[in-house]
Automatic annotation (TrEMBL):
SUPFAM superfamilies: Band 7/SPFH domain. Pfam families: Band_7 (PF01145). The lineage of its organism: Bacteria, Bacillati, Actinomycetota, Actinomycetes, Actinomycetales. Residues 50-200 form the Band domain. InterPro entries: Band_7, Band_7/SPFH_dom_sf. This is Band 7 domain-containing protein. Gene3D superfamilies: Band 7 domain.
């Protein structure tokens, strides 16, 4: 917004980059443009400052449908002032002279004009529709008709206002009617939510049952494998016992054969040794018999001496010595 600097008898105006200033004196336009800077004498002219930037205006319009139900329409309109001189002539954009406590009402007036145009267009369009039709799928159609209404409005064109964009944001009934309309949908949504909950629970139960069945099947498979393992171990043990028994039988049979062979060898050796001893004894007896009684007696004494205990001292008396001498003497004589 431009600024005014007061000096004695003169005023210095400094405009902004987005402000179109119009200087009027005696009903004639003396100066018009954006970003102006100039001096003017007090009380000799009037200034109007018109903003040229786009302005967004959002508002709510309430109209009645054909079945006498209120419909709330949320509208957003973007406009700009294309002809500043025409706008300054039709709306309040005065900058000087103006009372210090009052502001220009030009933009508010344009907003009110835009709101009235939108209300009129929506009232004629939605008034021909039932509530259900207006709030279910008619947003784009109503938005198109609203855009056409602004494009064809001659008042805006005459006052230098250009429409940049028109958007119909929503069409909704009153809160009570909307709650009533939402009730069946809410019930349906609750029913679908309950059905989804029951389905999830049923699915969870089915999954738990499947898990339990899988666990049971796993336990059965494990038990079956354990039974097979026990059978295999028993079979291996029986086979090992049979192999060991067969090996032991073979060892016993071999040992029996060895003992029999050894007994036979002992018997043969014994018979051979016995016959040799018998022949030796017979030869010894025959030799002793042929040698005579003295030899036999001497051998007997030798044998007796070999089996007699040892004596520390032997006392030989005269009688014993005489008997011995007589015995040996007699023996010698008999040998002769």
């Amino acid at each position: 917004m431009g600024t005014l600097h007061n000096h004695p008898f003169f005023i210095r105006y400094q405009g902004g980059a987005g402000d179109h200033v119009v200087q009027i004196s005696a009903g004639r336009t003396i100066r018009s443009g954006v970003g102006q800077s100039f001096w003017l004498r007090k009380g000799r002219c009037a200034l109007a400052e018109v903003p040229t930037a786009n302005r967004a205006h959002s508002f709510l319009v309430q109209v009645a449908s054909s079945d006498q139900q209120n419909v709330n329409a949320q509208v957003a309109v973007t406009y700009c002032i294309e002809n500043a001189e025409a706008a300054a002539a039709h709306y309040d954009f005065g900058l000087y002279p103006r009372e210090a406590k009052k502001d220009a009402q030009g933009l508010w007036q344009i907003d009110e004009t835009v709101t009235r145009i939108a209300h009129s267009a929506l009232a004629s369009t939605i008034g021909a529709m039932a509530l259900s039709e207006a709030i279910s799928g008619a947003l784009e159609r109503v938005s198109g008709l609203l855009t056409q209404a602004f494009a064809a409005n001659e008042q805006l064109q005459a006052t230098g206002v250009g429409i940049v964009d028109v958007r119909l944001l929503s069409l909704r009934p009153d809160e009570g009617v909307e709650s009533s309309l939402r009730a069946p949908l809410l019930e349906q949504l609750r029913a679908e939510a309950d059905r989804a909950l029951y389905e999830r629970r049923a699915l969870a139960v089915e999954r738990e049952s499947q898990i339990s069945e899988n666990e049971m099947q796993s336990k059965l498979d494990l038990a079956r494998k354990r039974a097979d393992l026990v059978d295999q171990e028993g079979h291996n043990a029986r086979r090992e016992a049979e192999e060991k028994a067969a090996a032991d039988a073979i060892a016993v049979e071999a040992e029996s054969r060895r003992i029999v062979e050894k007994a036979k060898a002992y018997e043969t050796d014994w018979n051979t040794a016995g016959r040799a001893r018998t022949a030796n004894d017979a030869a010894y007896i025959q030799a002793v018999a042929e040698a005579g009684p003295e030899v036999a007696r001497a051998l007997a004494l030798k044998e007796l001496a070999g089996h007699m205990p040892s004596f520390g001292n032997i006392t030989i008396t005269a009688d014993v010595l005489s008997d011995l001498v007589s015995a040996f003497t007699g023996s010698a004589k008999a040998g002769k």
